[in-house]
Structure formats: C-alpha cells, structure tokens
Amino acid sequence: MRRRGRLAPSPTGAQHLGNARTFLLAYWSSSANDEQLSLRIEDIDSPRVKPWAAQQAIDDLRWLGIRWSGEITVQTDRTRRYNEILSFLRRRNRIYPCVCSRRDIEAAASAPHETGLHHEGPVYPGTCAAWRDGDRVPEGRPLCWRFRVAPGNWSFVDTICGPQSIDVQSKLGDFPVTRKGNPSRSDDQLYPPAAYQLAVVVDDIDHEITDVVRGDDLLASTLRQLQLFDAIGAAPPRFAHVPLVCGSDGRRLAKRHGDTRLSQYREQGVPPEKVVRWAASVSGYPLEHLSPGEPLESIHQDVIDSFSWDRLPKDPIILDRHRGPGPNTVAWR
Ligand code: GLU
C-alpha cells in the first residue's frame, strides 16, 4: 500500500516561520518515503477562521516550493460525513450530549495546543455521561456531544518522541467531538458542527493517511484520537510530533514574538530559499555545501536525499529575533 501524508493548515490566522518549519519537515519526510502528500484546510473553527487565511496558506506553501497532489480537501465540505460517524458512535454509546457550560467545550473547535501529554484544562467530571442512546436529547439549551473514553493506559510509539503512554480517562477525560450548539431533533441536525478531534480522525481515515507529521503540542490529542480510531474501527497512522519553534519566552511562536508571517516575507521580497535554508539548518541540515544561489528545488532535493528523523534536534527551537544565536537559540535576520 502506498504511504500517504498530509498538510493540514488551520486558516485561523497567517502561517508563520514555525508553521513553515513543520510543513517543510512533513514535505521532506513524505518525499523521502515516497508518500503521496495531500492538502486539507482545517476550517471548521468558524468563529476564528479568517476569510483570507486559507488562500494565503496555499500561496505560502506554493511559495516555499512544497508540492502536494490531488484535490484540496476543505473540512467544512464534509459535515455530512462527520455526522454519519457521530451517529455511528452514538448508536454504540460512545458519545453523549453534554449541556455543561464549560470553557473547554468552546475551545474544542480548534486543535488544543498542549505541552507534551500535559493537559491544561480541567478533566471533565462526567456530569452528563449517564445518557444512553435512545434517551431524550436535551432540548432548548446548547449542548455538545462528548466522547466517552475507555479506561486503562493507551500507548503509541512516536517516531520522534518515542513511547508515549497515558490513562486517557483519568488524565484527559471525556472530550467534545462537536462544538456547542442548539441542534434540532431531526436526525441530520442532531449535531452541532464537528470539533477538531473528530474531524481530523475521520479525514485521516477517509484519506487513508498512513503518516502524520505535526507539532508536539498535539501529543495529548493523539492519545485522544487513538481512542476515536479504535471506536470507529480503523487503524491509526504513524505519528511524528515535531518539537515546536518557540519565542524567547519559551512559548509556542505567536504574534507577540514579532511578525514572522510568511506572507510578510513574501511581500518584502525575501526569497523563499532563505526560509527553506533556515528551516533546514534548524532541523539538522546545515546545507553549507550548497552555493548561495542554489535554486529552491535543489535545496529541497538535497534535504530529501539525506532525510532522517535522527538528525532532528529533540529540543524546541528558540527563535530570538533580537538577541541572535545562543545555546539552542536560532536567529532570523
Ligand atoms: N490544523 C492543525 C493545526 O494547524 C493540525 C492538525 C493535525 O495535524 O492533526 O494546528
């Protein structure tokens, strides 16, 4: 079976240097493994999605010289499929309607960015968990559907981070698989829009994804998603969670660390080769043997030809735009 990978930008804002580095690693590893790489736009987080951001992400990826194949998938086109899976899970009593008004229900639309297996929010206490399929779905107040996680330790071996294991039930808890909404009783409108965890798993199953490369802030999500793969009856892909690019305060690169938007570099006439060489050098591929004028395509080919996850530094990359390189610190000038 042909291996398949995917790029999955969220158009909730501009893509920055940190995103570029993760996308480039996904591209290099998929090319090195002769995978088919697809692109899907994770636009289900409607309150946060920006109308310009999907096209901008596509333009950024093209500018970086990243190639994918096939049609671009858009998650908001797949509501019907997500609802089918929700009904499947409901009939097996793996999800239940939850009327609790907790902040983590609101937050479920997007990928939760966590530290390692550490979950920052409270663990859901199971207030609504007694519901069984056939019971009345609460009406007249907003609800989300929550996944009933299975007990015991759940484990996987990450290509980069090694063995990971956690008791999902006690450490992470039952998690939302839809956003919060006011669904009606008719079967096709029983569910508010799908949340991140569900959409990602259904997409990866339907697109026969065998290899996922993404930021290591989604490690805990992977443990949740393994339970969803299992409940749906599908084999999970292989995962490689990449250490993130962080700002000088050690937190995930964001706006507050300065403007590292790819679109901004593009507008300023910064050559994409500069970004690609930077991403390669902070990922274990210094490329000093290549001439300064080396074309984009052959920079990519050089990394792909020698690609190995063993070369990737295991610690987060600290991007300090002001102080220049220090231990573990990389400059962008
Ligand atoms: N769209 C998610 C993000 O940009 C990535 C989700 C995934 O790779 O599973 O954070």
Description:
This protein is of the alpha/beta class. 30% of the residues lie in helices and 15% in strands. It has 10 helices and 13 strands. Helix 1 packs across helix 9 (272-281). The N and C termini lie far apart (43 Å). The model has no long low-confidence stretch (mean pLDDT 91). Glutamic acid binds next to loops. Residues 8-10, 42, 111, 200, 214, 218 line the site of glutamic acid.
List the helices and strands and how they pair.
Blueprint: E1 4-7, H1 17-32, E2 36-41, H2 53-63, E3 73-74, H3 79-91, E4 95-98, H4 103-107, E5 144-147, E6 153-158, E7 162-167, H5 168-171, E8 175-176, H6 196-206, E9 211-215, H7 219-232, E10 238-242, E11 245-246, H8 262-268, H9 272-281, H10 296-305, E12 317-319, E13 329-330
Parallel strand pairs: 1-2, 2-3, 9-10, 11-12, 12-13
Antiparallel strand pairs: 4-5, 5-8, 6-7
Helix pairs in contact: 1-9, 1-10, 6-7, 9-10
This protein binds glutamic acid (GLU).
Low-pLDDT residue spans: none
How many angstroms does the end-to-end distance come to? 43 Å
Largest sheet: 3 strands, parallel
The fraction of residues assigned to DSSP E strands is 15-25%
What structural class should be given to the helix and strand makeup? alpha/beta
Bound molecules: glutamic acid
Shape: elongated
Integer average pLDDT = 91
The helix-strand sequence is: EHEHEHEHEEEHEHEHEEHHHEE
Number of helices: 10
Helix content: 25-40%
What order do the strands of the largest sheet run in, or round the barrel if closed? 1-2-3
List how many beta strands DSSP finds.
13
Rounded radius of gyration (Å): 21 Å
